[in-house]
């Protein structure tokens, strides 16, 4: 059985778009080939090769964290569990990805402006 879909994108200028859909309202910014968006389903970074139909999209930021990982954010590495260490590594990887995507976006804007 099919499902009803609704999506409308409003260009606000400067590479910023307001996206309205069935699940809610979101916003995205970027240029053709690189975009970062935030909406009801979370934050996402997307890189594509325009005209090819090929793209890579990754959810950025985290979902809901357990209270135990937020209870004492100043734990020493010796006191951290392996799960907490892995979570910190994952967060660092996400920040690296955002930084690289942002740098790529700036380079693209400089080249095409």
Automatic annotation (TrEMBL):
Listed transmembrane segments: 93-112
Keywords, ordered alphabetically: Membrane, Transmembrane, Transmembrane helix
InterPro entries reported for this sequence: DUF4236 (IPR025330)
Region annotation (Disordered) ranges: 58-80
Signal peptide residue numbers: none
Domain of life: Bacteria
Protein name: DUF4236 domain-containing protein
The DUF4236 domain, residue ranges: 4-57
Low complexity composition-biased segments: 58-71
